[in-house]
Amino acid sequence: MAFESLSEKLQGTFKKIKGKGTLSENDINSAMREVKLALLEADVNFKVVKDFVADVKEKCMQAEVMKSLTPGQQVVKIVNNELIDLLGGTGSKLTYSSSGFTVILMVGLQGTGKTTTCGKLVNYLAKNGKKAMLCACDIYRPAAIDQLEVVGKQVGAPVFTMRDSKEPEKIALAAKKEAEVKGYNVLIVDTAGRLQIDEELMEELARIKKAVKPHEILLVVDALQGQDAVNVATGFDDKLGIDGIIMTKMDGDSRGGAALSAKKVTGKPIKFMGMGEKLDALEPFHPERMASRILGMGDMLTMIEKAEEAYDDEMAAKLEKKLRKNQFTLDDFLDQMGQMTKMGGLGAILDLIPGITQAQKNNVDLEKSEKEFKQMEAIIQSMTKAERENPNLLNASRRKRIATGSGQTVTKVNNLIKKYEESKKLMKKFNNPKMSGKMFKGMF
Asked: Taking the model in full, what pTM does it have?
């Protein structure tokens, strides 16, 4: 994920001062030099870094911090608050029309993932009770309309097209009228991009804006572009007036500088971040949660939200009932493993757990974990229904047959049964609220 290197360096810097009973001015200056270097290496705008470090240093040098019983923790608290402010202060939500019908205009350069992000936004809106229609206004890029239709089919949203038209503003206006007539809440307009900002592109977007009067203009930028992404955001805002930013590829190895600079430089908030290629991998951007992740303090709120999305109330009630009756089967065990995949996999979960250092994350072989899950799936699917419901039936000969059928070894079958038994005990203890915190920590 983005910020990995920055997070590791900041945590290393603060680890040095956390253990000290008192802090001197030299300690603060040394820590601030390391923070400054870490931010610059993360490709954060130089002026932003300069102002950030100056603000943090000024607050850290105050008497109540220097003479505190926990000065190191006070410094981390100050940095956390300043990071939150730098990232935007509070989360910025989408603005919906009071009339009940909202138009969202998606803009950006070519290759930023704009069309795919349109589909992700449809999914996000659906979770929030909104029914969206897509509109194809990219009349230049080969197969752009086809791509949007594929995305629309995948997320279950209709796509309005006028393949013979060469006037995007007329396409958008016709789409708006049709969406309103057919009872959709939101129209998402996918526009053309270029390899660079040019007058022709901006004039076209201005005509679309004038025609459909969007309630939100969202700029899609690529986090991997670093400061170039911030410059693009400034250019679009100057020419068009954007309402917010969607930063894609935040799950990649970007240094994170674009996200840390965007709000301060452009004055426009990051509203969403793309966290993968799947069409459900779009997350609202919460400055306070992202600051917490950067400083290694985890993000339990996002983890809870992911868990709530993965589990519905009916599924949770059924599982609780089974556990109380001691009926937790191997099918249930496989379902639980599948829920972790729905939450983004082990790697995404580790990013959200407080106290997990980058070094510890690096020690986890994520590819091996994914491979093991597929092996477990093959083993369980090689069992009969009776064996999955009652693993006590699995004697030596049955285990040998299952190993042969799944292409695995008997040892791996035995390991699966052992993990199932451990998981069964763990799930029982989760029913006790007093134990849940300890057991959750122990899981990882």
From this structure: 0.70
